[in-house]
Amino acid sequence: MKKQSFIIIGIVIMLLTACHPKQYIYLMDMPLDKYVPITNKMETRIKPDDRLSIVVKSKKQELAVPFNAHSYQVKLTGETTSSGNDATTGYLVDESGFIDFPILGRLQLGGLTMPQASEYIRGLLTEGKHIPDAVVETRITNFTIYSLGALSPRKLVVPEGHINLLQALAQLGDLQGRAKFQKVRVIREDDGQRMEFDVDVTTKDLFDSPAFFLQQNDIVYAEPKKPQSDAAGKTSFWISILAVLASIAYSVTYMLK
Q1: What is the pTM of this model?
Q2: Under 8 Å CB-to-CB from 92, ≥6 apart: which residues?
């Protein structure tokens, strides 16, 4: 009789084990203690609607002051201070990729990286004999990523002006078993076109994805494993089944005593 009881208990345990979800981890096929060559580099390029902070510096700061009049003030000590909110100040890139820069006029920066834009402006300042020793620093101040789905819907502002998908997931709250690790979608608008990329974060192949390095205004959508209402219904179903099985197991055990 005890044997039958053990069989029933075993069946219940097997059912519980079968319901346990499969666990995934990031980069499961990434080799340990081994360097992997980096085949692509993070290069954020300037796009329309970007807000740019462009700071011009010189050993003679009085020469740089007129070129920082738009949204930043450079003191004679070389210290740079903002005159407002970074996300709403600075130079707005128009639809054609141009900005209006003090004294130098309209400059086309669209498509350039930050170092390229800085070098371009520095060249105009030195070649035009405005500032012989000009140093230029350029960055995007409204670089923003959005999240949807299993991730908490939110707007992530990236002051550094660059971020990759893993860094974004870490700041957006991680997938934490709520989402499909093998299907993280990145929605991107670029040059008048909309593209979607599905990224599998369980494999090292994600480093080669064009969506690994995120761009301005990308949307990261983490597809839930199950719709919330469906998951809740199935949870109630399995709770009911287990309750019945437990009741049967108890009754049979009692009768076999």
Answers
A1: 0.72
A2: 49, 50, 51, 52, 99
